[in-house]
Amino acid sequence: MDYISSPVVGVVMGSSSDWDVMSHAASILESFDVPFESKVISAHRMPKEMFDYASEAHDRGLKAIIAGAGGAAHLPGMIASLTEVPVFGVPVPSKYLSGEDSLLSIVQMPKGIPVATFAIGEAGATNAALHVLANMALFDNTLRHKLLSFRKSQTDKARNMKL
Ligand code: RP5
């Protein structure tokens, strides 16, 4: 697969305050040399930009969109409703309900428009990126080997843990 210039993954979020969490997805994509873009697209404050971004995603070459939001987190579901590009949702911890609101808002999509939903917070952001890579690795052997070596190194780290 030719990843040379344009982004193949979009990392979008409802606010710059989500970046502490969503940067974990970006770091994983960066470490695997997969071109990505990161943007703030607030579903309730920037609905026009959200519509345009999702509607153009496929033709711009995006293969996956990782979308994070907190609270009544409608960004991942709304993006998914506007594109056939698969959407991976990350519930961002919220101020009052610690992200349980974000989780339920993202995971409880009505049937017909799926959003693959991950754990609340940085584990979710990391795993969303790893899951995107696992899907791409089905068609890209170089990426598959990088993923296997990432897995091996975390296994080695766990085996070497001393108490
Ligand atoms: C959501 O509201 C964002 O995704 C963020 O998690 C939360 C708070 O946004 P800010 O008030 O920090 O901009 O839209």
UniProtKB/TrEMBL annotation:
Catalytic activity: 5-carboxyamino-1-(5-phospho-D-ribosyl)imidazole + H(+) = 5-amino-1-(5-phospho-D-ribosyl)imidazole-4-carboxylate
Protein name: N5-carboxyaminoimidazole ribonucleotide mutase
Keyword annotations from UniProtKB, A to Z: Isomerase, Purine biosynthesis
Function: Catalyzes the conversion of N5-carboxyaminoimidazole ribonucleotide (N5-CAIR) to 4-carboxy-5-aminoimidazole ribonucleotide (CAIR).
Entry's Gene Ontology BP terms: 'de novo' IMP biosynthetic process
Pathway(s) this gene product operates in, as recorded in its UniProt entry: Purine metabolism; IMP biosynthesis via de novo pathway; 5-amino-1-(5-phospho-D-ribosyl)imidazole-4-carboxylate from 5-amino-1-(5-phospho-D-ribosyl)imidazole (N5-CAIR route): step 2/2
Alphabetized PANTHER family for the sequence: PHOSPHORIBOSYLAMINOIMIDAZOLE CARBOXYLASE (PTHR23046:SF2), PHOSPHORIBOSYLAMINOIMIDAZOLE CARBOXYLASE CATALYTIC SUBUNIT (PTHR23046)
Residue ranges that the Swiss-Prot or TrEMBL entry lists as coiled coil: none
Record-listed E.C. numbers: 5.4.99.18
Binding-site positions, substrate: S15, D18, R45
Transmembrane regions listed in the UniProt entry: none
Family in the record: Belongs to the AIR carboxylase family. Class I subfamily.
Keyword Isomerase recorded: yes
Annotated GO MF terms: 5-(carboxyamino)imidazole ribonucleotide mutase activity
